[in-house]
Design a protein that fits this description.
The complex is a heterodimer of chains A (639) and B (72).
Chain A lengths: L2 H22 L14 H31 L6 H20 L3 H31 L7 E5 L2 E5 L9 E4 L9 E5 L2 E4 L1 H4 L5 E3 L4 E2 L4 E2 L4 E5 L7 H11 L6 H36 L5 H15 L2 H20 L2 E3 L2 H7 L2 E7 H5 E11 L5 H11 L6 H9 L9 E7 L3 E6 L2 E6 L1 H7 L11 E7 L2 E12 L3 H10 L4 E5 L4 H11 L3 E3 L4 H14 L5 E6 L5 H6 L2 E4 L6 H6 L2 E3 L5 H37 L4 H20 L7
Chain B lengths: L1 E7 L3 H12 L4 E7 L4 E6 L5 H15 L4 E3 L1
Antiparallel strand pairs in B: 1-3, 1-4, 2-3
Helix pairs in contact in B: 1-2
Classes of the chains: A alpha+beta (639), B alpha+beta (72).
């Protein structure tokens, strides 16, 4: 509890005990004999009740008064002030009952306090999790390590990170091995191992060894700053529900005030002037005041923005950054998800996935291939060298002959090794076996005899299939893949992942026009989301209704262009984000419906004189508390 | 120029009200109030003096939400 809240709690206790004590006094207790019966005789009693009323309600009265001065008249403070002051006036003039007015104020404050505590708790929860701002950087200087402001560390300087500390600035590891906890960034607590030469993202927590890091960016451009900026700027774009509620409140509150006014004035006038009955002013004014208390729109105006804040916070905790509540709303209506292939559904790195038809052992074949390709920097050659587990002794290689567009011919240990595509084999007159798998095929011949082939392809992410299935389960109607890759490869990937549609052989600019086509095909209320890794698909990210950038740790272009940023590159997070948004929107709808329904029923009861002010304040405070608790549910995103 | 200020505000709707009020202050180009992190991000218009502008922002915010606080 904050200081403010403690103060309110004390006020509630004091005022409540005073109220109980006063209520226990005999009806006519401070009966001063020199005062006449009637209102004047009730004056001492009123004055007594004004003490607990003042203690509990002074700030509401002050706020209401200031609101009037600042021409922000119609808010909940105004409603409560008018209702309670009115009830006191009726008590004074007619009934002599002052308990009600004080109690209404009391319950209102209890509700506010409760709401404040609940919200504060959950807020602290979230901000602790999102607290990734490093306080200092340990800069290496000739005089030893020195703690400095991360903002003042120039690019290229060397910093030290001890175990347990946050990495303050992006850089490259110079010395030391350790594992990093990336939970604050990605929501996943799988540690990442780093060794010298590895790039390292700020915001991770160093867990085991001391690391020496050469910074590659200034603090302001480091991952951690970018993320903080995103988190702090979230919510700048308001969702339709929020704008609806604030617009609603703008008309609603004046409307109920005038409604209450009508309820207070019209029936007595009609009764008195036309029906010849007694006007019963007191009764109708009392009903109007009850009406005011019920109609207080707190539950809505408090809980709807809170739901979005909580939803964005909960998503952030899971490593999903949402740039504004409007995107959360859009996300919940996603009907079509379009993927980029490379880097989104696949790893984006070429790997040897198979070795076929080889009379030699796989390792021997890979070693020959790696030696043959040892001088090439082509990505295919690199992936072959990576796949070869043995150390490469380059002195074994001689007579390298590159055959442009076909491959290479070299001597390894005196044996002639030819390594390349099918055309090379044809040229050498070696019959080669066609491969049934898709990907890039590298054939090998040793001393003129066929020695098998190596399949190199971009590997699908292990979660890719599950991710597509999860999207379907989350209610996405269509999944589409766009790729610049060859048709055969694309088709096979799409089939394995069970995607609905695939468009292949696309240049980056084709992707935009393809997306335009897809945008035309969606249903009117449906949202098309595009998920990409931000590498050469930034225009598509911007063009889609909803751009989701994956693996954003480090890619600025993606962060800029996207509406939703997934911190790691796990495509399963897309379905999770959709589930979070759906939950959030469901809560919003529940709250709107529930609050309005209860209010409507109570308003009618109040106008008919069935509900009294006690029921009114319970309806108001109860609905608010329930709505707030419901809103906080959006924080918890589950698995 | 962009600056971040710590704020104190009790309810999400009040945060929205503050944001709305602050964005209308001359010299403020755009502003976002984050209720969850209790931060106000202000980007100032060219040539505006942040200290002076923020004084006005605080005044404007106090008008709509008397309870709020901005650490200047």
């Amino acid at each position: 509890m904050t200081r403010k809240q403690k103060k309110v709690l004390i006020r509630i206790c004091v005022s409540a005990s005073m109220l109980i004590a006063l209520a226990l006094l005999p009806e006519d207790f401070p009966r001063l004999s020199f005062l006449p019966e009637g209102p004047l005789g009730r004056l001492p009693r009123l004055l007594l009740y004004l003490v607990p009323y003042g203690i509990i309600g002074y700030d509401i009265l002050r706020k209401a008064f200031r609101g009037i001065l600042n021409r922000q008249v119609f808010d909940e403070n105004f409603l409560m002030a008018v209702a309670t002051l009115g009830a006191l006036a009726i008590g004074f003039l007619k009934t002599g009952d002052f308990v009600e007015a004080v109690a209404v104020m009391l319950f209102y404050q209890v509700g506010e306090l409760f709401q404040g505590i609940a919200v504060g708790r959950s807020r602290k929860n979230i901000s602790a999790l999102m607290d990734i701002r490093p306080d200092y950087a340990r800069l290496e200087t000739p005089e030893g390590a020195e703690e400095t402001d991360p903002d003042e560390v120039p690019v290229g300087s060397v910093i030290l990170v001890n175990p347990g500390e946050k990495v303050p600035i992006d850089g490259v590891v110079l010395e030391g091995e350790s594992s990093l906890n990336t939970a604050a960034l990605t929501g996943e607590s799988i540690p990442r191992d780093v060794k010298p030469g590895d790039e390292i993202c700020s915001g991770c927590v160093n867990m085991s060894g001391v690391l020496r890091i050469r910074t590659t960016r200034v603090f302001g451009e480091s991952t951690v700053s970018k993320i903080l900026e995103l988190v702090e700027n979230a919510s700048s774009l308001k969702s339709r529900s929020e704008t609806f509620i604030s617009r609603f409140a703008r008309y609603y509150t004046p409307a109920v005030v005038f409604g209450a006014l009508a309820l207070a004035l019209l029936p007595p006038l009609v009764r008195g002037l036309f029906l010849g009955l007694s006007p019963e002013w007191g009764e109708w004014i009392y009903r109007a005041l009850t009406f005011l208390v019920i109609s207080c729109p707190c539950a809505l105006v408090i809980s709807i923005p809170l739901t979005f804040f909580a939803g964005i916070g909960g998503a952030g905790k899971a490593g999903i950054l949402v740039k504004g509540s409007v995107w959360l709303e859009e996300l919940s209506r996603t009907g079509i998800v379009v993927f980029d292939k490379t880097g989104t559904l696949t790893e984006g790195v070429f790997q040897v996935t198979a070795v076929h038809h080889s009379p030699l052992s796989d390792e021997d074949l890979l070693e020959y291939a790696a030696l043959a390709e040892s001088s090439s920097s082509h990505p295919i050659a690199v992936s072959i060298r990576k796949a070869c587990t043995r150390p490469l002794d380059l002195s074994r290689v001689s007579h390298v002959e590159e055959i442009s567009g076909n491959g290479v011919r070299v001597l390894v240990d005196g044996k002639e090794v030819a390594c390349g595509n099918a055309r090379l084999m044809e040229r050498l007159g070696v019959p080669c076996v066609e491969c049934h798998e898709t990907g890039t095929i590298v054939h090998l011949a040793v001393d003129g005899a066929y020695a098998g082939h190596i399949v190199i392809s971009d590997r699908e992410k292990p979660e890719a299939k599950e991710a597509v299935a999860a999207l379907k389960a989350a209610g996405v109607r269509r999944t589409v893949m766009l790729t610049g890759d060859r048709d055969a490869v694309a088709r096979q990937v799409a089939e394995r992942l069970e995607l609905d549609q695939v468009y292949s052989d696309l240049l980056p600019e084709d992707k935009v026009s393809m997306l335009e086509e897809l945008l035309k095909s969606r249903h009117p209320k449906e949202v098309l989301a595009f998920a990409g890794d931000g590498i050469n698909d930034a225009p598509v990210l911007t063009r889609a209704d909803l751009g989701i950038a994956m693996g954003a740790m480090g890619s600025d272009a993606a962060i800029e262009a996207a509406d939703i940023v997934l911190m790691d590159d796990n495509p399963l997070k897309i379905a999770k984000a959709i589930r979070i948004s759906r939950k959030c929107m469901r809560i919003v709808r529940e709250n709107i419906f529930f609050a309005l329904a209860v209010k409507a029923v109570c308003l009618v009861l109040g106008a008919l004189g069935i509900a009294n002010m006690w029921l009114a304040v319970f309806a108001d405070v109860g609905v608010m508390v329930l709505a707030v608790l419901n809103a906080i549910r959006a924080l918890f995103t589950g698995k | 120029m962009k600056k971040t200020y710590k704020i104190e505000v009790d309810c999400a709707n009040c945060a929205n009200k503050m944001e709305c009020a602050a964005s209308k202050v001359p010299g403020v180009e755009s502003v976002t109030v984050n209720f969850m992190t209790q931060k106000m991000n202000v980007s100032f218009a060219e040539g505006a003096e942040p200290a002076a502008v923020m004084k006005e922002v605080l005044k404007a915010c106090k008008k709509v939400e008397n309870d709020c606080e901005i650490e200047l």
